[in-house]
C-alpha cells in the first residue's frame, strides 16, 4: 500500500492503495466516484473513460502509480451542472437507452471536440468506435456530437 | 366506520389472465402520508399506488417496472399523468420498490409493460383526477360535472373558480376511492403521443449512481465468485490458504445456489450451482485474489433437478460431458433431415411436393450468443436476522424474491427488493442466480456485500441464447404459387419453433417439425427469444422462394397474407393478416422514393407488434457498410414517439451486430470468448449510416417495442448481402461466411 495525492476534478484527493490499482477502482471503491464505469477491464469497451490532462484515457488499465501530478477529470467533473455542450447535446438528442456506457461515450466525445472542434463523420467514427454501446444508440451519439460541435 | 376509512386509500392491481386479457381488481391499504422528498416541507398525499400529490403541487408518479433502457420509467408515468391531466413539467417520477401487494407484473420481459400496463396506468391517473374534481366540487359547492381540469388545474368556468391539484390534494385524497371512472377519449390525450425526454437523462449524462453496481453502503464488502472454467465441470477442492492471507481479503468459501430438494421455477436457471466466493475490502484486491486462488475441478455425472412450472412438476436431467460447438453443429446438421416431432400439419404436404414444378430448399444456423450487458452481473445483499435488504438490477424481482425466500427459509415479508436501473438486460437479468449468491455470501460473512461479476465471469458463466439449426423446403406449382411448405428446426438445447406463425395459414400444405438436443450449457431468454432465429431463417428463405417464383419480395409476402386473410388454412394462426400486410404496405410506400442499391426485405410479427424492414448494405474492402435501414412498425398507439424510435434504432443496431459478428463457441465445455477482445460487438463505424422508422397510425391499443424490431433485421441483412454479393448467407454470423 502507498499514499497518493491525486488531482481529481480540480481537487486533491489522498488515497492509500496498492500501487497497481487501476484508477477505475480508485475512483469507484475509494473515492465513491461511480460515474466512471467498469465494463471489461481490458480497455476494449470505453465505459471507464476519463480525461488525463484533457486526453481521453481508459482508466481500467491505468495504474494509480503512473498518474503522478496529472489532472484527472471524470464524468462527475465534466461540468458544474450538466451544461457541457456535449452533455447538453446528449439531452437534446435523448441519446441514452440503458445509459451505462454513456458517461464513457461523453468523455470520449468531449476530448474529441477539444482537439478537433469540427470533426467529420469519419473522424467521429474513428474516435468513437473504441466505445461500445450495447443498446445501439450510435446514430444518436453521432448526431449529438455534431450538435455539440456546432455550438 | 373503520371499513370506510380503509376505502379511502385503494389502489389498483392488474393481473394478466391466461390468453392475454386483463383483470382489474382493487386491493386496500390504510392511509399513509409520505414525507415529501422534494420540498422537505409538504407531505405527499397518496391517491393510489401510482399517484401522490403534495399540497404545494408536486405530483409524484410511481414507475412500477424495472428500467433497463426500454424507457418505461418515462412512458409508464406518461400514461398516468395524461389521465390525471397533470402538467408533465410538475411531475416527479419515482422508481417503485418491489411491492407485490400494490403492483403486479413488476418485471421486464416479453415487451409487455405498456400493453399490459395500459389500462391500469390509465385508471390510476383517471381515478385520482376524478377524486380531485369531487373535492373541488364539494369545496366550491358546484356540481362535479361542471368541474374541469387542464394541466394540473381544477376549474369551474361559471364561477371562475380555480385551484391547483395541490390545493385540493388534502381533501381529495381523503375521499373514498371511486370506481368505474371514465377514461379519456384518445382525442383528449396531451402527453401520450408527444415526444417526452427520458426522465433520467440528466442523471445519466452527469454520471449519477443509478445502477446496481454503483451501490455503496456503510460497511459494505466486495465479493466475486470463481466458477468452473467449463460447463460439465464442478468444484472439487480449493486452497483457502493461497489467498486468505492476501491484503484486503476477508474470507474465501464455497456456496451452493439451490439445494437439491428445491423445485426450480422457470427463471431459476443457475450457470454453476456450486461456486467459490471471495470476499474482500475492495474490488481490485478481490480481483487479484481471484487470479491467485488455486482450485481443482472435476467432471460431473449426469444428474437431475426438480422443476415446478406454475404447478406442473417435472424432473430435468443435466447431461454429463464437455461439449464442443463443432460436435453440436454436426449433430444438428444431421437432425434437420430426420423426421421429428410434428408440431403442425395442414393438407397433404408430401403430395404437394410430388406435384411441384419447383422445389426450393435451404438450411440455416445460428450460434450461441452471450448477452453482454454493459453492466456486468452484480447485486447488493445485506442479510440480517430481522431483515434482508436486496438492491440491484434484475428483470424478475418477484420471482427472485420467492427463490431467495425458499433458499434462506425466510418469509417474503422479511425481504425487501429495491430495483436499480439495469445497465442492459436483454433477458440475461431474468436469471438472477447472482442475487441469491450475493445473499448467501452476505449471510456467511455477516456483513453487507456487493457481488460483482468480472466481464470474464459474465461472458463465460452466462445463460446464453441457444444455438439453432433449421431446414426449410418450399414447393411451387407451374404458376409459381406456393403450394407446399416444410420446416424442420431445433436447437441445442432449445427448439425455436413457432409453428402457428406466418406463413402458416397462408399455405394449403404445411408441415412444421422440431427437435431438441439436451445440453449442460445454460441457456435462456435473449431479446425476442426463439423469434430471433425463426425470423432470420424463415424471412431469408421466403426471399429465396420469392425469387424462385419470380416475384417482388414485398408483393410475394402480400399475396400470401391476402390468402391468409381471405381463405386461411387452419385455425390457430398467430397473426392478424391485415396488420401484417399494413407494415409491408407502409414499407413499400416509404422505400419507393429511396435510392436503394441492395434492398433486403424482411417482416416479422412477435410480442404483439408487427415490423417490416429493408436493409441496404454492401461489402467494401471486406467490411460491411450499411447505407440505410428503413423500418415500418405497427405497435398500435404510440406512447412516446421519440422513445419508440430510439428503441427501434437500438433494436436494429443490436440485431445487425449479432447478425454480422455475434458468436459464442465452445471447446470442451469452455467458451472460446472471454471478453470483448474475442467477442466482437458492433461499433459505431459499423452501424447504419441512416435509419428511418415509420409507424402505422391506427386505434389499436399500444403494444411493446423492446423486442419486435430485433428479429426481422437478420434476414434483411442476409437478403441485402445476397443482392450485394450474389451469395446467399445462411449461417450466422454472416461475416464468418464472407471469407
UniProtKB/TrEMBL annotation, chain A:
Residues 2-78 form the 2Fe-2S ferredoxin-type domain. Keywords: 2Fe-2S, Iron, Iron-sulfur, Metal-binding, Oxidoreductase. This is (2Fe-2S)-binding protein. Gene3D superfamilies: 3.10.20.30, [2Fe-2S]-binding domain. The keyword Iron-sulfur applies. It comes from the Bacteria. It comes from Jiulongibacter sediminis. Signal peptide: none annotated. GO terms for molecular function: 2 iron, 2 sulfur cluster binding; metal ion binding; oxidoreductase activity.
Automatic annotation (TrEMBL), chain B:
Pfam families: MoCoBD_1 (PF02738), MoCoBD_2 (PF20256). SMART domains: Ald_Xan_dh_C. One of its GO terms (molecular function) is oxidoreductase activity. It comes from the Bacteria. Residues 206-301 form the Aldehyde oxidase/xanthine dehydrogenase a/b hammerhead domain. PANTHER family: ALDEHYDE DEHYDROGENASE (PTHR47495), BLR6219 PROTEIN (PTHR47495:SF3). This is Isoquinoline 1-oxidoreductase. It comes from Jiulongibacter sediminis. The lineage of its organism: Bacteria, Pseudomonadati, Bacteroidota, Cytophagia, Cytophagales.
Amino acid at each position: 500500500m502507498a499514499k497518493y495525492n491525486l488531482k481529481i476534478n480540480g481537487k486533491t484527493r489522498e488515497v492509500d492503495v496498492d500501487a497497481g490499482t487501476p484508477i477505475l477502482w480508485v475512483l469507484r471503491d475509494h473515492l465513491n466516484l461511480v460515474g466512471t464505469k467498469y465494463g471489461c477491464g481490458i480497455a476494449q469497451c470505453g465505459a471507464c473513460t476519463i480525461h488525463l490532462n484533457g486526453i481521453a484515457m481508459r482508466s481500467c488499465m491505468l495504474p494509480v502509480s503512473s498518474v503522478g501530478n496529472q489532472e484527472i477529470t471524470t464524468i462527475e467533473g465534466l461540468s458544474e451542472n450538466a451544461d457541457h455542450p456535449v452533455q447538453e447535446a446528449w439531452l437534446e438528442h435523448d441519446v441514452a437507452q440503458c445509459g451505462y456506457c454513456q458517461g464513457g461515450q461523453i468523455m470520449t466525445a468531449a476530448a474529441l471536440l477539444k482537439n478537433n472542434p469540427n470533426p467529420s463523420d469519419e473522424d467521429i467514427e474513428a474516435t468513437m468506435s473504441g466505445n461500445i454501446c450495447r443498446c445501439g444508440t450510435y446514430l444518436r451519439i453521432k448526431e449529438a456530437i455534431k450538435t455539440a460541435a456546432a455550438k | 366506520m373503520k371499513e370506510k376509512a380503509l376505502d379511502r386509500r385503494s389502489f389498483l392491481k392488474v393481473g394478466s389472465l391466461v390468453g392475454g386479457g386483463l383483470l382489474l381488481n382493487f386491493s386496500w391499504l390504510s392511509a399513509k402520508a409520505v414525507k415529501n422528498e422534494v420540498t422537505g416541507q409538504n407531505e405527499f398525499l397518496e391517491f393510489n399506488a401510482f399517484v401522490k400529490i403534495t399540497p404545494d403541487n408536486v405530483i409524484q408518479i410511481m414507475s412500477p417496472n424495472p428500467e433497463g433502457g426500454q424507457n418505461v420509467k418515462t412512458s409508464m408515468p406518461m400514461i398516468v399523468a395524461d389521465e390525471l391531466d397533470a402538467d408533465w413539467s410538475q411531475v416527479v417520477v419515482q422508481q417503485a420498490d418491489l411491492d407485490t401487494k400494490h403492483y403486479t407484473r413488476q418485471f421486464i420481459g416479453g415487451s409487455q409493460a405498456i400493453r399490459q400496463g395500459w389500462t391500469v396506468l390509465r385508471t390510476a391517473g383517471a381515478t385520482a383526477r376524478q377524486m380531485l374534481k369531487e373535492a373541488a366540487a364539494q369545496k366550491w359547492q358546484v356540481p362535479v360535472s361542471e368541474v374541469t381540469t387542464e394541466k394540473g388545474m381544477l376549474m369551474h368556468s361559471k364561477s371562475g373558480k380555480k385551484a391547483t391539484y395541490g390545493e385540493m390534494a388534502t381533501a381529495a385524497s381523503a375521499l373514498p376511492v371511486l370506481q368505474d371512472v371514465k377514461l379519456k377519449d384518445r382525442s383528449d390525450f396531451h402527453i401520450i403521443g408527444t415526444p417526452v425526454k427520458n426522465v433520467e437523462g440528466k442523471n445519466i449524462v452527469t454520471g449519477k449512481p443509478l445502477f446496481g453496481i454503483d451501490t455503496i453502503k456503510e460497511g459494505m464488502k466486495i465479493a466475486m465468485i470463481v466458477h468452473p472454467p467449463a460447463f460439465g465441470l464442478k468444484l472439487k477442492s480449493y486452497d483457502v490458504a493461497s489467498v486468505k492471507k492476501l491484503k484486503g481479503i476477508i474470507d474465501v468459501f464455497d456456496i451452493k445456489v439451490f439445494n437439491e430438494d428445491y423445485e426450480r421455477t422457470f427463471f431459476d436457471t443457475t450457470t454453476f450451482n456450486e461456486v467459490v466466493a471471495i470476499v474482500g475490502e475492495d474490488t481490485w484486491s478481490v480481483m487479484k485474489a481471484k487470479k491467485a486462488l488455486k482450485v481443482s475441478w472435476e467432471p460431473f455425472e449426469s444428474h437431475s433437478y426438480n422443476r415446478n412450472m406454475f404447478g406442473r412438476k417435472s424432473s430435468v436431467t443435466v447431461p454429463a460431458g464437455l461439449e464442443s460447438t463443432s460436435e453440436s453443429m454436426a449433430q444438428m446438421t444431421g437432425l434437420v433431415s430426420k423426421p421429428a416431432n410434428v408440431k403442425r400439419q395442414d393438407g397433404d404436404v408430401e403430395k404437394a411436393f410430388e406435384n411441384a414444378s419447383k422445389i426450393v430448399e435451404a438450411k440455416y444456423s445460428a450460434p450461441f450468443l452471450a448477452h453482454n450487458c454493459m453492466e456486468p452481473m452484480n447485486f447488493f445483499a445485506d442479510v440480517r436476522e430481522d431483515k434482508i435488504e436486496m438492491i440491484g438490477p434484475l428483470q424478475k424481482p418477484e420471482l427472485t424474491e420467492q427463490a431467495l425466500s425458499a433458499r434462506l427459509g425466510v418469509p417474503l415479508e422479511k425481504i425487501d427488493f429495491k430495483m436499480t436501473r439495469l445497465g442492459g438486460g436483454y433477458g440475461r437479468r431474468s436469471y438472477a442466480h447472482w442475487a441469491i449468491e450475493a445473499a448467501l455470501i452476505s449471510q456467511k460473512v455477516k456483513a453487507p456485500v456487493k457481488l460483482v461479476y468480472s466481464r470474464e465471469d459474465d461472458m463465460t458463466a452466462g445463460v446464453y441464447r441457444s444455438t439453432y439449426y433449421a431446414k426449410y423446403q418450399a414447393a411451387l406449382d407451374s404458376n409459381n404459387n406456393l403450394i407446399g411448405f416444410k420446416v424442420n428446426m431445433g436447437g441445442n438445447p432449445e427448439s425455436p419453433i413457432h409453428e402457428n406463425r406466418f406463413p402458416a395459414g397462408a399455405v394449403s400444405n404445411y408441415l412444421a417439425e422440431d427437435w431438441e438436443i439436451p445440453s449442460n450449457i445454460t441457456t435462456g431468454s435473449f431479446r425476442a427469444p426463439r423469434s430471433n432465429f425463426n425470423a432470420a431463417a424463415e424471412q431469408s428463405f421466403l426471399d429465396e422462394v420469392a425469387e424462385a417464383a419470380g416475384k417482388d419480395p414485398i408483393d410475394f409476402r402480400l399475396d400470401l397474407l391476402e390468402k391468409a386473410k381471405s381463405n386461411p388454412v387452419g385455425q390457430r394462426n398467430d397473426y392478424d393478416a391485415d396488420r401484417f400486410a399494413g407494415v409491408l404496405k407502409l414499407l413499400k410506400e416509404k422505400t419507393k422514393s429511396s435510392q436503394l442499391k441492395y434492398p433486403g426485405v424482411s417482416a416479422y410479427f412477435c410480442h404483439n407488434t408487427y415490423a417490416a424492414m429493408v436493409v441496404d448494405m454492401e461489402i467494401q474492402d471486406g467490411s460491411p457498410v450499411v447505407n440505410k435501414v428503413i423500418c415500418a412498425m405497427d405497435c398500435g398507439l404510440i406512447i412516446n414517439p421519440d422513445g419508440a424510435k430510439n428503441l427501434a434504432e437500438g433494436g436494429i443496431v443490436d440485431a445487425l451486430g449479432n447478425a454480422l459478428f455475434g458468436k459464442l463457441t465452445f471447446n470442451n465445455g469452455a467458451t472460446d470468448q472471454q471478453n470483448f477482445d474475442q467477442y466482437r460487438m458492433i461499433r459505431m463505424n459499423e452501424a447504419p449510416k441512416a435509419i428511418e422508422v415509420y409507424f402505422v397510425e391506427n386505434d389499436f391499443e399500444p403494444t411493446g417495442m423492446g423486442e419486435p424490431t430485433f428479429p426481422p433485421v437478420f434476414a434483411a441483412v442476409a437478403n441485402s448481402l445476397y443482392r450485394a454479393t450474389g451469395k446467399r448467407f445462411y449461417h450466422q454470423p454472416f461475416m464468418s461466411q464472407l471469407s
